[in-house]
């Protein structure tokens, strides 16, 4: 399908990683991008993960947590051996990743940021995360996502 390519999908194709793309019509009125994806695709929300860009000790990093959970900033900082974490300014997150908010993928970011996956990824054979555009999710194994992002896996959800 034309127009589905993103840096995330290009990376998956280049690395020959098994994955499935799932698209849906994004509703800009929906309050939560992640919950919208779960509802639109008929998935249990715990299996859909959101990508949150944060600052850990002044440097950008990424936390990937279930859409039903909040990011534990202290847990994220600890996983990256940092002291303090806070949410990044949206413009900084978009500039560093090359994606727009609501479509930020942990894969294929313009600037490769440290990634921490919530340990709950291990509860599923495959998980869903943004493929780099609102309305486009990628289904991938947690092991492949961790390998491609060089992620740390830790408890970072609250």
SS elements, strand count: 8
The biggest beta sheet reads:
5 strands, mixed
Described by the principal axes of the CA atoms, the overall outline is: globular
The tally of helices reads: 5
N-to-C SSE string, H for helix and E for strand: HEHEEHEHEEEHE
Arrangement of strands in the largest sheet: 4-2-3-5-8
Give the helix proportion (percent range): 25-40%
Low-confidence runs: none
- Secondary-structure-based class equals alpha/beta
**What portion of residues belong to β-strands?**
25-35%
Q: Give the overall pLDDT as a whole number.
A: 94
N- and C-termini, Cα separation: 38 Å
Radius of gyration: 14 Å
Organism: Lentzea rhizosphaerae
Domain YbaK/aminoacyl-tRNA synthetase-associated: 36-148
EC number: 4.2.-.-
Protein name: Cys-tRNA(Pro)/Cys-tRNA(Cys) deacylase
């Amino acid at each position: 399908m034309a127009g589905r390519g993103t840096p995330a999908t290009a990376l998956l194709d280049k690395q020959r990683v098994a994955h499935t793309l799932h698209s849906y019509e994004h509703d800009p009125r929906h309050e939560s991008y992640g919950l919208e994806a779960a509802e639109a695709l008929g998935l249990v929300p715990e299996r859909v993960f959101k990508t949150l860009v944060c600052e850990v000790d002044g440097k950008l990093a990424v936390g990937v947590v279930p859409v039903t959970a909040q990011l534990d900033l202290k847990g994220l900082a600890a996983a990256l051996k940092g002291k303090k974490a806070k949410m990044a300014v949206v413009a900084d997150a978009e500039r560093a990743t090359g994606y727009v908010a609501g479509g930020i993928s942990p894969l294929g970011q313009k600037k490769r940021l440290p990634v921490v996956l919530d340990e709950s990824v291990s509860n599923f054979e495959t998980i869903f995360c943004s493929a780099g555009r609102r309305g486009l999710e990628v289904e991938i194994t947690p092991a492949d996502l961790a390998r491609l992002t060089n992620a740390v896996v830790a408890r970072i959800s609250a």
